[in-house]
Specification:
Length: 340
């Protein structure tokens, strides 16, 4: 019989194995070897997704803390979803844009949402910009922190909040069931730690890179509920709910046992099939180090300020209702974000 520690090690190994399958599927990812500190050659997974990094950019020599812009991107057919981070001392902006290839060429977008946080001024500006919802709200920093600390619903690729909800539903009152492998993967040319999280709500892997040393105090202001286990900029996040793995209704112990059995069997066809249900994650599309100008933190001129966050959310609900009325055959919000 395996000891408790042995079972945990095997379970976390299984979780990591499962997420290699779920995150990469049967793509053209290749393996490489990277010398370890003890002279061994631990396996390094190379993600062959191409990123639009400038020629000659050495990510190992980026400034620390990082200042500049980082753009992530995902495309599904003609629809393009982008998330851009702009970082400066004491300030950070995260903006999510949903558009399509044609609109992108003309600078247009179907929907846009973001947050601008200024630590020195102790304020956060949340904004949305789409046909029926062009508004922003101003929150003092403490009120904004309380908002991020609330138990929010995970919405993977949305243009509602402005801030990320990837981690928003994870437990915050205890240490997570997670294992981190240092410098274990290369994503789009960026060396990342590979963090596997096994929680009752979801399975998650986070490839976070110490080559992108964004001030963590600032990063926490754009990533609701970001756990302490995520120490660096999250280059790639993959989540899967239990229903996607065929484990709906099982508690955490049963789920870990199931993962262990799957690992012992070499990952079954059922898991491979479940991986197809997962959305492709955001990928690094561009990194541009350098001083961010003040204009990079200004809001679009066509936005109208509302008095409270409650009113800001009410405007969202009204816009969703209007969109549903125009397209009754579409599910709520489906034209603005995808769900995993």
């Amino acid at each position: 019989m395996k000891s408790g520690l042995g079972r945990l090690c095997l379970a976390t190994t299984a979780a990591t194995a499962v997420f290699c399958i779920l995150g990469c599927g049967k793509s053209d990812d290749k393996d490489a070897k990277k010398p370890g500190a003890d002279g061994s050659a631990p396996e390094v997974v190379v993600d062959e997704s191409r990123s639009a990094l400038p020629d000659g950019l050495d990510v190992s020599r980026l400034p620390a803390p990082f200042e500049g812009t980082i753009r992530l991107e995902r495309q599904a057919g003609p629809v393009i979803y982008e998330v851009t981070y702009t970082v400066a001392p004491g300030r950070i902006r995260r903006e999510a844009v949903c558009t399509n290839a044609l609109l992108r060429k003309t600078g247009g977008a179907m929907a846009r949402a973001g947050v601008v946080v200024d630590v020195e001024r102790k304020e956060a500006l949340l904004y949305r910009n789409r046909d029926d919802d062009r508004h922003f709200v101003r929150l003092d920093l403490e009120a904004y922190r309380r908002l991020l600390g609330a138990h929010l619903t995970y919405e993977p690729l949305d243009t509602r909040h402005g801030f990320s909800t990837h981690f928003a539903d994870l437990p915050r009152d205890r240490k997570l069931a997670a294992v981190n492998q240092e410098e274990a993967v290369i994503v789009g040319g960026i060396i990342c730690d590979h963090l596997a999280i096994v929680e009752d709500a979801c399975f998650m892997t986070v490839d976070h890179s110490r080559q992108l040393k964004v001030d963590r105090g600032l990063l926490e202001l754009t990533e609701a509920g970001m756990p302490s286990e995520v120490k660096w900029f999250p280059v790639k996040v993959v989540r899967a709910g239990r229903h996607q793995l065929g484990l709906a209704g099982q508690g955490a112990p049963a789920k870990i046992d199931e993962l262990m059995r799957q690992a012992e069997k070499g990952i079954t066809d059922a898991l491979n099939s479940a991986s197809k249900a997962l959305s492709r994650p955001l990928r690094v599309a561009a990194i541009a180090p350098g001083k961010a100008e003040a204009s990079a933190f200004t809001l679009p001129a066509n936005l109208k300020e509302v008095a409270s966050y409650e009113e800001f959310e009410k405007k969202w609900a009204e816009a969703e209702a209007a969109a549903a009325a125009k397209s009754p055959q579409s599910s709520k919000g489906s034209h603005h974000h995808w769900h995993d």
